[in-house]
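Progress note, sequence design subtask.
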C-alpha cells in the first residue's frame, strides 16, 4: 500500500468504511458505561452468593444480546457507508447519503466561506479526520465529509481551496480521456479501503506562515480572570456575611447556610466547569497564521480543528476586554463568518486571549487595510478612548439619563474601508465591520430614546457572536450614518482577490510583529503542509 496523497476523485466516491462507527462511538460508550454501573456490583469480584460462583444466566443473555446488537450495528453501518458518496467538481462539493430517506447536499465553491479539518478524539487516535465545507446559506448549509484519512482530508481541503480560487486541476483520468475519448473508471472498493492512489498527485498546500500563538499559561489565566470563579466564591461568602450581620444564633445559622450554599453552589459549579472546559479545550494549542488561501487557525485539546477562512469572508470582528483583563491589557477577538452558526463560539474565535499588540496583529489578518493614515493609533483610541477621542461620533449628553454609566464610551466612526463601533465601560468592546460586508442597516427608537432625541443604528450581519449595534446616537447622526454607509458599501463591493489580500496583509503584519509585545509563533512555524 502506498502512502502517496492524491487528488480527490471526480467520480462518486465513498468515505472511509470506519466512518459510521467513528461517528457513533459516544453512543456505544454511554450504553456500555450505563450497563457496567448498573450490573457491576452483582458480578464484579468473581461472583457472589447470588451468582453461585459460575456464569449467571443474565450475563450470558446480556452477552448474546450485545453480540446481536453489535451485528446489527455493523450491518447498519455497512449499508449506511455504501449509501454515502461524495464528489468534487470544479464548481462544488456534493454529498449524497441516507438509506430510507435520501439526502443530497451541494456546497458551491463560489459561496465558500471556510474549510475545516476536524479530528474528534477517537478519529484523532486512529488517524482520521472530517472535512467540513462551510458556505453562505444559513443553517444546515454545511457539507460534512465524515471521515477520511487525515492525509486525504488535508489533500481534499487543499484542492477545495484551490478550486475556489479558480485553479482548475488536471486529472490523470481527464488526460486519458483527452487522448482516447474514454472516461476514467471509478475507484474500486479495495482502492478506497486501502487508500490507494485514485488520480494524479494532489494539489500542493499553499505555503503557510504562523503569526500568533496563545501560551497555555495565558489561556489559563484568562479563564481564571473571566469572572466565573469570582461568582462561585462570592455565593457562600455573601451568605456567611449576611448570617453574621442579621442573626444572633450564629452556629445554627452557619450550618443552615453551609447546606444552602452547597445546594446553590453545585449547579453553579457545573456551569463554571463547563465554561472552563469549553474555553480550555477550544483555546488549547491555538495558532493563527496566513497563507494564500486565507487565514489559518489551529486549536483544540481532545478535538483538534484546523480552519481555513478565505480572504474577505469575515463579515464582522469584535475586540472584547472584560474588566478583570484590563490590568494585563488582554483582549479576545471573535468574528462572524457566513456559514458558521451563532452558537459555534469555538469556531468563531480569531484570538482566545492576547495582548493589545496580539489583537492588532489578529485584526490585520482579516482587515489588513483599515483605510486610515494611522491605523494603530485609531484602533488604540477605539479600544480604550471615550467621547470624541479618535474622531468618533459620540452619544449626546441627553443619553446620560437612561445610560449614565456607558454613554461616554459609546461612539461610531467610519474609515475608508470599515465602520468602527465602540461601546462598554466594564467590558470594553470594539466592533469592526468592513463596508462591503454590510448587508443592510436599520434604525430603532424606543420611547425613552424619542424623549432624549437619540436612536440606535443596527448593522445587519450574518449570524454569529458579533452584534454590530451602535446605541444612543443623536437622531441626526444616526440618519447621516445610515445614508453615508449605503454609499460606502456600494463603493466597496469590489471583491479583493487573494493575491491583493496577501500583498496587503504581509507588510501590515510585519510592522506589528516588529514590536516586543506580540506573542509571535516560532520561526519554524511557517511551513508547507
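Output:
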Amino acid at each position: 500500500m502506498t502512502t502517496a496523497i492524491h487528488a480527490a476523485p471526480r467520480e462518486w466516491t465513498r468515505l472511509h468504511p470506519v466512518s459510521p462507527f467513528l461517528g457513533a462511538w459516544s453512543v456505544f460508550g454511554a450504553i456500555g458505561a450505563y450497563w457496567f454501573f448498573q450490573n457491576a456490583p452483582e458480578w464484579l469480584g468473581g461472583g457472589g452468593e447470588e451468582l453461585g460462583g459460575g456464569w449467571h444466566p443474565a450475563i450470558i443473555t446480556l452477552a448474546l444480546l450485545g453480540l446481536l446488537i453489535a451485528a446489527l450495528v455493523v450491518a447498519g453501518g455497512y449499508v449506511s457507508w455504501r449509501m454515502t458518496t461524495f464528489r468534487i467538481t470544479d464548481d462544488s462539493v456534493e454529498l449524497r447519503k441516507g438509506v430510507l430517506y435520501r439526502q443530497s447536499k451541494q456546497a458551491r465553491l463560489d459561496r465558500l466561506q471556510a474549510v475545516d479539518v476536524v479530528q474528534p478524539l477517537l478519529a484523532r487516535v486512529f488517524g482520521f479526520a472530517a472535512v467540513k465545507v462551510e458556505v453562505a446559506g444559513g443553517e444546515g448549509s454545511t457539507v460534512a465529509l465524515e471521515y477520511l484519512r487525515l492525509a486525504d482530508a488535508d489533500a481534499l481541503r487543499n484542492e477545495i481551496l484551490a478550486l475556489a480560487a479558480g485553479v482548475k486541476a488536471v486529472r490523470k483520468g481527464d488526460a486519458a480521456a483527452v487522448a482516447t475519448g474514454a472516461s476514467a473508471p471509478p475507484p474500486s472498493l479495495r482502492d478506497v479501503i486501502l487508500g490507494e492512489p485514485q488520480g494524479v498527485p494532489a494539489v500542493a498546500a499553499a505555503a503557510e506562515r504562523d503569526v500568533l500563538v496563545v501560551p497555555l499559561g495565558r489561556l489559563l489565566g484568562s479563564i481564571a480572570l473571566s469572572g466565573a470563579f469570582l461568582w462561585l466564591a462570592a455565593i457562600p461568602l455573601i451568605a456567611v456575611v449576611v448570617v453574621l450581620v442579621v442573626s444572633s444564633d450564629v452556629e445554627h445559622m452557619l450550618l443552615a447556610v453551609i447546606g444552602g450554599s452547597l445546594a446553590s453552589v453545585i449547579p453553579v459549579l457545573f456551569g463554571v466547569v463547563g465554561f472552563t472546559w469549553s474555553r480550555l479545550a477550544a483555546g488549547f494549542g491555538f495558532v493563527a497564521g496566513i497563507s494564500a488561501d486565507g487565514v489559518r487557525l489551529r486549536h483544540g485539546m481532545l478535538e483538534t480543528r484546523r480552519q481555513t477562512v478565505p480572504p474577505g469572508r469575515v463579515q464582522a470582528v469584535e475586540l472584547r476586554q472584560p474588566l478583570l483583563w484590563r490590568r494585563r491589557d488582554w483582549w479576545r477577538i471573535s468574528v462572524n463568518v457566513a456559514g458558521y452558526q451563532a452558537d459555534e463560539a469555538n469556531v468563531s474565535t480569531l484570538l482566545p486571549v492576547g495582548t493589545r499588540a496580539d489583537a492588532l496583529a489578529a485584526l490585520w489578518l482579516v482587515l489588513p487595510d483599515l483605510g486610515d493614515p494611522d491605523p494603530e493609533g485609531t484602533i488604540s483610541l477605539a479600544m480604550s478612548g471615550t467621547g470624541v477621542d479618535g474622531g468618533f461620533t459620540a452619544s449626546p449628553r441627553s443619553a446620560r439619563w437612561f445610560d449614565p454609566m456607558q454613554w461616554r464610551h459609546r461612539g461610531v466612526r467610519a474609515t475608508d474601508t470599515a465602520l468602527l463601533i465602540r461601546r462598554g465601560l466594564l467590558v470594553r468592546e470594539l466592533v469592526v465591520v468592513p463596508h462591503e460586508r454590510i448587508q443592510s442597516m436599520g434604525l430603532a427608537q424606543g420611547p425613552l430614546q424619542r424623549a432624549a432625541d437619540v436612536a440606535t443604528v443596527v448593522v445587519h450581519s450574518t449570524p454569529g457572536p458579533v452584534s454590530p449595534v451602535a446605541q444612543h446616537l443623536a437622531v441626526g447622526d444616526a440618519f447621516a450614518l445610515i445614508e453615508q454607509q449605503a454609499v460606502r458599501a456600494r463603493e466597496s463591493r469590489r471583491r479583493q482577490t487573494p493575491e491583493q489580500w496577501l500583498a496587503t496583509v504581509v507588510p501590515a503584519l510585519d510592522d506589528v510583529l516588529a514590536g516586543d509585545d506580540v506573542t509571535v509563533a516560532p520561526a519554524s512555524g511557517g511551513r508547507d503542509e
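Residues 1-6, 170-201 have pLDDT under 50 and may be disordered. Work on this subtask will continue into the next period as scheduled.
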